[in-house]
Write a structure and sequence with these properties.
Chain lengths: 721, 103
């Protein structure tokens, strides 16, 4: 057991502690908050590097390097709940990615949030998020996973609603929380069912874990409704959680709205890490996803009988993975079409994120863990880059998010433009030099070889075309042409001149400006990774693939030129160039002159454009069905509460009230009256008696004398009788 | 009427006078004198019952009376001292005004 695997818990605990310390400090200590958050993140990053190098060192020993450690948390009945963590290549890669991107985004946030008065709260939430996300990554236990998963959802809610005084942000936060909760219900049900089936929630436990063959075997052996094996049913329930978190169809609606949060949050949570958690979940429970019955038992003869349990085979076209594939492919094309018609710079990126998450799911479904995870990692870097770039643009344009009101920013913010262009080319999948090309190509390649259907492949290709198209549109609108945003401001400017206000400040505000170094440096670093990362997963040197699967990668240049690979690469390059060219032809050549001018596509196909601009009216459909039903149910419950249950309660109240009135009457007029009278009599009697005790000695003496006489008379009279 | 009866009659008269004095006088010193009279009436009774009793040769009655007179002297001393103390406190020896049971 390596030291780092034993102490892997330190990685999430560091930012957690930082978050706690920030939370209890005063609101003005900005430096302390930033230092703590960034310092703890840097420490976590260093530890992640340790973990990564440990996996590298043990790479290729025998199979996949995997070490688990943990502790018993609490006991119920005769069983212990464990909280375990695992160190394997998947964890290590995610740890490095999450902690590194978080670190860069923390640094960026110092610049972006510099003028926000809730700076401390922001860093507190960000650190908590990082802790929860790192917890998700290291979990070897569905319970720990679920706890961290929900924490991640909570911080997402808190950060989307960070500017809660904006009604739209508050609504978006609620929407995100509730929508993901629908998915999490599936995850919870899957978790409970898994526990009841296998008696363990640990993923790996030296043969006893729920992802290991004996547990999978029992789950495959049982069938449930409509002929599904239990394994498939559980896998689909768990996948529902991933659908909610990763914004897949039909639960994607929250992700674009989540852009109401501060831009670093969009970059970190809603592009790079949290939304990838769903993809990571599928990758983590991949054995469960791919478990299916051996077709031999169904009477078909296949030769792969190498497994010790002949009922179970891990197949790349199990029912669960087919669902994953279809959902992913549909999401990829669906969100890409919407992104074409959006005008908010962050919303375009949000739909692009949804689309790319669909690609990851597609990759997981058709190609296995490594394919999906590779796109996850590369996407995390270039999408974080794009979001931070858009943050820089928004910051430079004075909180303007409408791309129609931008334009020509290339001259004003050269560093942002250069890095943004790199991110855009990587996302579009520009051939050979950008990471997005290699990861997307691998997905398309696997989709092409998928035995079940070819439709996901064509959907993926169409999505790639659209991706290149809408990114070109965005860049053309934002960075080329003439700056269109100054009109309103210059009007206000001239007005202020008339009123003789000092105007130098407004002068500097009229034009966009480049962001400070604290914001551009993370951009440059991310841009570097957006290019370089692609080369660890090229077909010629599939290091990433080998690393995750515990095989050693060999450099083989000839693989690049193999028939299938090369033709596919050429095809995808053609697709990308078509998309870029189309975008440039429509938006780059004829640049938009004014803000109000209709879009090129709007002129050509107004109906379709309207459909896309309104996101296929999914929100409206949900409003009309789910939300309305919910509102109706709420009203019904309200009615029940107010009139039925409330009435009952009221009735009980009245009865109680009546009874107590009766008690009070009895008390006042029966018990108290009798008692009071008795007391009064006693008191009066006491008063009478006390008159005898008047302190007059002679009276006492007189009484004694009279008593003596009476006594004597009595004795005399008594003797006589 | 025997001489014993005469003695008892005198003694009863004396007691009644003493009692009346003690009860009716407002002055504390006069009330004390009344009490002394009642005491002496009792002494007279002792002497009378001894002198006309079955064993007049024993000196028991005389002894009791002398003892009683000694006690009466002491009692008079204590009573007068009390009256002086009361006078100092209340500036009066009128028994009607000395009726507070406390201080």
């Amino acid at each position: 057991m390596t030291w780092i695997a034993q102490n892997l818990w330190l990685i999430p605990v560091l930012p957690l502690v930082a978050s706690g310390v920030i939370a209890v400090n005063k609101q003005r200590q900005r430096k302390l908050a930033a230092t703590l958050a960034i310092g703890s993140m840097a420490m976590a990053f260093l530890l992640s590097l340790c973990a990564f190098s440990a996996t590298l060192l043990h790479h290729g020993d025998n199979g996949v390097f995997r070490e688990v450690a943990g502790f018993n948390w609490l006991q119920f009945g005769g069983q212990w709940l464990h909280l375990d963590w695992v160190l394997d290549p998947l964890t290590a890669v995610m740890l490095v990615m999450v902690s590194f991107v978080s670190l860069l985004i923390f640094i960026f946030s110092v610049g972006y949030m510099a003028h926000d008065e809730n700076f401390m709260r922001f860093f507190c939430f960000l650190s908590l998020f990082a802790a929860a996300m790192l917890g998700v990554v290291i979990a070897n236990n569905l319970l720990l996973f679920f706890i961290c998963w929900e924490l991640v959802g909570l911080t997402s809610y808190l950060l989307i609603g960070f500017w809660y005084h904006k009604p739209s942000a508050a609504a978006a936060a609620k929407k995100a929380f509730i929508t993901t909760r629908i998915g999490d219900l599936g995850l919870l049900l899957g978790m409970v069912w898994l526990y009841s089936q296998t008696g363990t929630l640990n993923f790996y436990a030296k043969g006893d874990g729920c992802l290991e063959s004996s547990a999978l075997n029992t789950m495959v052996m049982h069938t449930t409704a409509i002929g599904m094996t239990v394994a498939t049913a559980i896998a689909l329930l768990i996948f529902l959680g991933a659908v909610g978190k990763s914004g897949q169809l039909p639960l994607h609606v929250w992700l674009p709205d989540a852009m109401e949060g501060p831009t670093p949050v969009s970059a970190l949570i809603h592009a790079a890490t949290m939304v990838a958690a769903g993809v990571f979940l599928v990758a983590r429970v991949y054995p469960l996803m791919s478990a299916s019955l051996n077709p031999v038992r169904l009477g078909l003869d296949l030769s792969n009988l190498g497994t010790p349990f002949p009922e179970l085979i891990l197949s790349s076209h199990s029912t669960a993975l087919q669902v994953v594939t279809w959902i992913g492919a549909l999401t990829a094309i669906f969100a890409a079409t919407i992104a074409v018609a959006q005008t908010d710079i962050k919303r375009i990126l949000a739909y692009s994120t949804v689309s790319q998450l669909g690609y990851m799911m597609l990759g997981l479904g058709v190609g296995g863990v490594a394919v999906g995870m590779f796109h996850l990692i590369t996407h995390a870097f270039f999408k974080a880059l794009l979001f931070l770039g858009s943050g820089s643009v928004i910051h430079g344009c004075h909180e303007e998010q409408d791309v129609r009101k931008m334009g020509g920013l290339r001259r004003f913010m050269p560093a942002t433009f250069a890095t943004y262009a790199i991110g855009m080319l990587a996302l579009s999948g520009f051939p050979l030099f950008f990471s997005g090309f290699w990861s997307k190509d691998e997905i398309l390649h696997s989709a092409h070889g998928w035995p079940v259907s070819h439709i996901p492949f064509f959907l993926g290709c169409a999505g790639a075309l659209l991706t290149a198209f809408y990114m070109t549109r965005q860049v053309a609108l934002v960075f080329f042409g003439k700056y269109r945003g100054g009109v309103r401001e210059s009007a206000a400017h001239s007005q202020s001149h008339e009123k003789n206000k000092p105007s130098s400040h407004e002068d500097s505000h009229a034009e966009p400006h480049e962001s400070p170094a604290v914001m551009t440096v993370p951009l440059v670093i991310l841009a570097g990774f957006a290019i370089l990362l692609g080369f660890v997963g090229t077909p010629a040197w599939p290091w990433f693939d080998g690393f995750l699967n515990g095989e050693s990668a060999v450099f083989n240049f000839n693989k690049l030129t193999e028939a299938g690979t090369l033709s596919l690469m050429l095809a995808s390059a053609v697709i990308v160039f078509t998309g870029l060219g189309l975008g440039w032809w429509l938006y780059g050549k004829r640049l938009r002159k004014t803000v109000g001018e209709p879009d090129v596509l709007q002129n050509a196909q107004p109906a379709i454009f309207r459909l896309l601009e309104n996101k296929y009216f999914v929100d409206e459909i949900y409003d009309a069905t789910a939300v309305r039903f919910n509102a109706w149910a709420a009203q019904f419950c309200d009615f029940l509460d107010r009139w039925i249950w409330g009435g009952m309660v009221l009735l009980v109240t009245w009865v109680t009230l009546g009874l107590s009135r009766l008690y009070r009457f009895t008390d006042d007029f029966v018990v108290n009256l009798g008692f009071d009278t008795g007391c009064e009599t006693l008191r009066e009697g006491g008063g009478e008696m006390s008159k005898w005790q008047n302190g007059r000695v002679q009276t006492y003496l007189r009484v004694i004398g009279v008593a003596l006489v009476v006594l004597v008379l009595f004795l005399i009279w008594g003797r006589k009788s | 009427m025997t001489s014993l009866q005469g003695c008892l009659l005198v003694s009863a008269l004396l007691f009644a006078i003493g009692l009346a004095g003690a009860v009716t006088r407002r002055n504390a010193i006069l009330a004390l004198i009344g009490i002394e009279l009642m005491l002496n009436a009792a002494n007279l009774n002792f002497i009378a019952f001894w002198r006309y009793g079955p064993t007049p040769e024993a000196l028991s009655g005389m002894m009791v009376v002398i003892f009683s007179i000694a006690i009466a002297a002491a009692e008079a001393a204590v009573g007068l001292a009390l009256i002086i103390a009361v006078y100092r406190h209340y500036r009066t020896v009128n028994l009607d005004e000395i009726k507070n049971l406390k201080g």
